[in-house]
């Protein structure tokens, strides 16, 4: 399901990619969760490129789900969003968790 989302995203069909990623995310695929967070952060309404402001609440929700499953990139993105929002304590926490998760992968 995740790979089908990637293929349809690369073909420019964001609505179908979003649907595949949501299915994969509901089955615990952290890459799909991360991709949904990234898409929401960059485009706003999932699947609609017309809105460029981004939907940070939706992005945060998907990143948090991925982070709960150990995705270091999602943790890093949560740190970045917190930093941009001026919440330095939360940013530091997420950056530290991301580093710990990365360190755990290299052992």
Please describe what this structure looks like:
By secondary structure, this protein is mostly helical. It has a domain at 32-105: Serine Threonine Protein Phosphatase 5, Tetratricopeptide repeat (Alpha Horseshoe), CATH 1.25.40. Helix content is 75%, strand content 0%. The chain contains 6 helices and no strands. The chain has helices spanning 2-10, 14-26, 30-43, 56-68, 72-84, 88-105. Helix 1 (2-10) packs antiparallel against helix 2 (14-26), helix 2 (14-26) packs antiparallel against helix 3 and helix 5 runs antiparallel to helix 6 (88-105). The longest helix has 18 residues, at 88-105.
The Rg value, from CA coordinates, equals: 14 Å
Q: Mean pLDDT, nearest integer?
A: 86
Category from helices, strands and their pairing: mainly alpha
Distance between the termini: 29 Å
CATH fold description of the domain at 32-105: Serine Threonine Protein Phosphatase 5, Tetratricopeptide repeat
Low-confidence runs of at least 5 consecutive residues: 47-52
| CATH homologous superfamily heading of the domain at 32-105 | Tetratricopeptide repeat domain
What characteristic shape results from the CA principal axes?
Answer: globular
Q: Give me the CATH architecture of the domain at 32-105, please.
A: Alpha Horseshoe
Number of helices: 6
Number of E-state strands: 0
* Share of helical residues: over 70%
What order do the helices and strands follow? Answer: HHHHHH
Described by strand count, sense and barrel closure, the largest sheet is: none
């Amino acid at each position: 399901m995740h790979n089908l989302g990637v293929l349809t995203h690369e073909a420019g069909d964001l609505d179908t990619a979003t649907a595949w990623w949501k299915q994969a995310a509901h089955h615990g695929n952290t890459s799909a969760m991360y991709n949904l967070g990234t898409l929401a952060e960059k485009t706003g309404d999932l699947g609609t490129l017309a809105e460029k402001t981004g939907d940070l609440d939706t992005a945060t929700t998907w990143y948090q789900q991925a982070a709960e499953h150990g995705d270091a990139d999602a943790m890093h993105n949560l740190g970045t969003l917190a930093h941009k929002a001026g919440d330095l304590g939360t940013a530091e926490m997420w950056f530290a968790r991301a580093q710990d998760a990365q360190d755990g992968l290299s052992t």
